[in-house]
Amino acid sequence: MARSKNNWILGLTGGIGCGKSAVSELFEQHGITVVDADIIARQVVALDSTGLHEIGKHFGADILNHDGTLNRTKLREIIFADSEQKNWLNALLHPLIREKTISDLNAASSPYVILTAPLLFENQLDKYCNRTLVIDVPIEVQVARTIARDNISLAQANSIIAAQMSREDKQAKATDILDNNRALSLVAQDVTLLHQRYMALANESKI
């Protein structure tokens, strides 16, 4: 993925339950465009999309719900049980996601643009960013929030977190770290300060 032609890009990431969406919304309140990799991943397999058509052709009609949308539960079961099928799916979707991400980054008209992605570092997306921001909370907070939000067990929450890049590794890779284990009003104050810094950096890059 080539870097967005005109825009200064902030990569925003963090582990499950860290509050990436809430922080992204705070930046949006400052008029900043947020390109969300999770949303794009859903868009490329939406109804009538090329991605969904190819998945249906490959796996058969049983992979679709009655309304023609993707049966995500069935697809997950297949790819977790068969690495070859997972590789096929990745080979299909990654270029579609990359193309849509580039398009959305280039289309952004705000002073800078945010690329939010849970796997920003794991998928080496940080190399396309001018700077990176990790949204950070203690692991026990991640666990509690994930259980409450997704209605899963403690074991499941711990398993998801264990499969992700460690908190320490994310902190080491980040250029900025935002503590999100506080009142939202305090986080919002820090987002305002970060926004002002990113505005200045983005303006400097255009001189």
From TrEMBL:
GO biological process per UniProt: coenzyme A biosynthetic process
One GO MF term attached to the UniProt entry: dephospho-CoA kinase activity
Keywords: ATP-binding, Coenzyme A biosynthesis, Cytoplasm, Kinase, Nucleotide-binding, Transferase
A GO CC term attached to the entry: cytoplasm
EC number: 2.7.1.24
Subcellular location: Cytoplasm
Catalytic activity from the UniProt record: 3'-dephospho-CoA + ATP = ADP + CoA + H(+)
Domain of life: Bacteria
Binding site for ATP: 17-22
Metabolic or biological pathway, per its Swiss-Prot or TrEMBL entry: Cofactor biosynthesis; coenzyme A biosynthesis; CoA from (R)-pantothenate: step 5/5
Keyword Signal: no
Pfam name, any one: CoaE
Main localization (coarse): cytoplasm
Functional note: Catalyzes the phosphorylation of the 3'-hydroxyl group of dephosphocoenzyme A to form coenzyme A.
UniProt record similarity statement: Belongs to the CoaE family.
UniProt cross-references to NCBIfam families, sorted A to Z: dephospho-CoA kinase
Protein's recorded name: Dephospho-CoA kinase
Organism encoding this protein: Pseudoalteromonas porphyrae
Lineage: Bacteria, Pseudomonadati, Pseudomonadota, Gammaproteobacteria, Alteromonadales
